[in-house]
Structure formats: C-alpha cells, structure tokens
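re: ur question from the group chat, yeah i did fold both. here u go
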Amino acid sequence: VMWFQKAAEQGDADAQYNLALCYADGKGVNQSCEEAVMWFRKAAEQGFAEAQFLLGFCYYNGKGVSQSYEEAVMWFQKAAEQGNANAQYNLGDCYYSGKGVNQSYEQAVMWFRKAAKQGEVDSMLKMGDMYLYGIHFSPSCEMANYWYKQAEKVCPAENEESKQKIREKMQHLYCSEFEQLLYTFHEAMKELRIVNDRGNLAGIHSHAGITLETLDKMKEHADSCRNCGNMARRTFIKYHIKCKPYFISISDECRRKMEQGYTGDGLHDFFNWITRQLDYAEEKLRTATPILPYML
C-alpha cells in the first residue's frame, strides 16, 4: 500500500486503481469505500477502464458515494467503449432494465453480445434467458440452449456459484422445452382424430407426420435429460416413444392409399382402423400418467 500510495500521488493511474482496490477490500489499510471511490475516480478520469467500471459499480450500488444509476451508466459506458467486458455486461443490464437510461432491448443485446464475445458468462446467460422467455426475440429453446452451453464452456471450474446458476437454467430450459413438445404432441393427436373423423387422408398423413417428428424431438430431449438428472421425465418420454409404431403405421398406410389414388371415399374400415391405432396409443400413454407429479 505504501508504494501504491507514493505512485498514486504522482498520478500513476495503475497505482491509483490498485490503491483503490486495497481500500475497497481493506487489504493493508482500513477498509473505506469513500477512499476507494476517490482513487477509482482519479484513475477513471485518466481513462483507466477497470477503474471506470468499478467507479460505475460503486455508483450503481451506492457504495462510498450517493447511489445514482445515471452516473453508473456514464462510467459503464466509458469502460465498455474501451472493451471492458464487465462494463459491457453491466451497461447492457442497465439498458435491459431501464436503470439510468431509456430502456432498450436492442441496446441491451448489443452490449450483451460484445461482452459474450469476450467470454463474459452472465451476458451469455442473459442472452439465453431472453430467447427462452421470448424477450425481444421469438421464443427459442434451441437458441437458449446455445447460449447456456456457451456459458457452460467458458465458466471457470472453480466458480461454483456460476456453475450452479448454469445448471439451474439448463434444468429450467429442459422443463420448458419438454412442456412445448408435450403440448405439440397432444395437439397433433387431437387433430389426428378430427381429420380422421372427416375422412381426410392428406390431413391424417400430415398430422401423423407431426406426431412422429415431435416424438423424435422428445427422444433427443430424453437424451439431454441425462445431464439434468430428471429420470422421471426421461421415463415419461419413453412411454410416449413406445407409441411411435402406431403413428408410423398410420403414416405409411395413408401414404399408400394416396399413392393408389384414394381420396377418402369408401375407406370406412380404414378410418376405423386408425381410430383403433389411436386408442392403442392413448392406452400406452395412460400408463405414464402416474409419473407426471415427479417430472418437474
């Protein structure tokens, strides 16, 4: 501290920054947020990006200075423009919430992306959240998964707090994705019965295809759930996948009928057969119902 002090008093920005850290943490000197702010400011006014960020952080949290989001944003901006990833994330978060600046998701995303390119984990998680909840973007589990995975890759092994945060977000993502797939599957099942009652071969073929495509995605989801540890949800999905042969049969038979030139007339027995296939499939699904309370 003594040598930091001597250099700081001569205007050395690096020494001013390090002296401020000592005051902030109480290392080698009595802890004082006010002294820390004073030296952060001296270094910040010389363009020292890390000091600009931490001075903004002090203003944001009201440590050693009167709380001011506007002042925080000003210093975050200065540091962010110099490429400081922490400042870029915090500036993005201010735009996201409208603290100290007019709220703007567009500006928030711009700064989150800049920080994420430098490996800033919280920016990646924020991008994932925005895709998951459909904030500024169309909802996309795929893009949310991309950003959460990016955060997982760069998160330091010793940062257990961030790793736990990532695990929780991944589990929530799997839950959201599962709910979307389950809804799509059962809506397709309902539509299958409707178009079957109407004798619509093309409609039956189309909705059987949707159920098969959704079942394939559910299989991928079940594999992903190995990482989130939810055995109940994996088991529930397996019951759904057991229904796949019924939908393959329906799809294949519809395709053959259409290739033979049938349009739906004179196929009463065929439509009754489809009804039975759907009944068999739903019977399989009822077996999985008791698992529902343990899935989420």
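okk and heres the other one u asked abt
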Amino acid sequence: FFIKTNEDFPLFPQKQYSIFHSFDISLEFCHIFSIFTSIPPYFLLYLYGIFYSVEKRKIRLLYTPVVLCYTLTELYRIYTQPRRQRSMKSMKKNSQWMVQVSLMAAVVVVLANTPLGMIQLPVIKATTVHIPVILGALLLGPAAGAILGGTFGLCSVISNTLTPTLLSFAFSPFLSSTPIGSLKALWISVGCRVLMGAAAGWLWMLLQKCRFNPWIALPITGFISSMANTFLVMGSIYFLLAPEYAQAKNVALSAVKGLVMGTIAASGIPEAIAATVLVTGLGKALLAALHRNRV
C-alpha cells in the first residue's frame, strides 16, 4: 500500500494517484505506527482519510470494502480463536478423563472377577468391588462414579448369570421369568450401583464445598457410600422382590425384613469399615498424585 509512483500501481489513473501522493508522509507514519499496534496501514489510512483528508469521499470509496473485510476477519478471529483453544483444551481434558475412568473400570473388572474383590472376615466375606467406584467418584466426579458403578453392576449381572446362586435371580435379569422381574433385577444389580457411584461423587463435592479436611471427608465419603450401596441393594430387594426372597430363603414373608436388616448389619457394616480404611488411605495418596499432575 506504499505507492510512491504511478508505475507501482498502474491500475489507478494519475488522477487517483494524487490521493496517495498527498498521503506520502502519512503512509510512512501509518506504516511505523502499525508495526507497534499490529493494525494494518490501510486501516489507519482509512481513519486518516475520514478525519483529515479533503478527499474523504474517494478515500471512503476506495478503502471501505477493504476495511470491512479486515474488520469482519478480525472479529471472526477474535471470536473463534478462544473457542478453538477451549475446544482443544476440552478435548485433551476429556481424553485424559476417559483414560482415567477406563483404568478405574479395569480395576473394578479385576476385583469383580478375582478373589481380590473379597475380604475374608470371621463370619462372612466382605466385597471390595465398590471401593474403586467410590475412589473414581471422588477423584473424577459423579459422572465417573456413575460409569464405574454401572461397570460394577454389569460385572454382577454377568457373574450371577454364569454362576448362579440362591439369590442370583435378584441380580440377573436373565434368570427372571417375567419382564417386570427382569427390570427389577436390572435395577438392583446396575441401577443401584450407578446411583451409589454418582452419590459418592456428589457427597465428596458437598464436603469439599463445606471445606472439610480430606482426612475427615475421605472416611465420611467411604463409609456413607458403602452403606448407601448396601441399603440401596437390600432395600430394593425388600421392596421389589420380598416374596421371591422369602421363597428362596424358605421363610415367611413377615421374616424378610429381619433377614434384610441382618444382612445389612452382618455384611454392610464390615464392608463400610473396610471401605472407610481403604478409601482414606488410597484416596489421600491418589488426590496428592492428581494434584501434582495438574500443577
């Protein structure tokens, strides 16, 4: 745009060249100013022509389309560049989150299909499969907790379908004789675990907002989430499958409530204690590692 002679830009006749000739010094100033401001010289020249030129009409006619194109381009760049950056950061963050959830899901599958998922207690065996669900929920959020809970539930469905026991009808929709019974079993095996995982994440977020110390928040989250898992499963069995449960146990229907409460006391409390200890120890270490990676 720095035209000193007519030969530099022969498309303009000599009459229009006088516009540029009158702005010879101004163009040099615009060029220098544009270096420091990143504003193109023709934009500055356009402003100069509006406010100071006697050739205002010709300047506007000549540069208005160029300036409009520049303005629209700059607005598009300003509007889309942060969005593209946010999109790339979001994609990177989502990819990292999915990898972490997948690793935790692999731990759930391993625990659900090996003896590592059971802790031998003096009277019964306490499951530990729900512990990585709770850890994933407090590390990665309620959505991750729900996904891990669903993984736990699907492992329960497969296990009870392939190796059925006396109460497998309550955990496998394939062992029920009615569609309603299948839906009930699907809720008990999968739905309750999904809800438990999401609830663990929400509880951790609530404790964080209340500024609880991690040494207090972790055992609270572990204990309450584990007991929520037991109450959801056994409560659903009592409210949805009480007659079938009584028939399987060969007891009266009125005795089902006592059996359910006994299971909660004998199995749920030891599992909650185990979850409290493991979630506190492992959760503190994992939270510290996650914080270091973010920093």
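fwiw on the second one: The first helix runs from residue 14 to 22. The chain has ten helices and two strands. idk if thats what u expected
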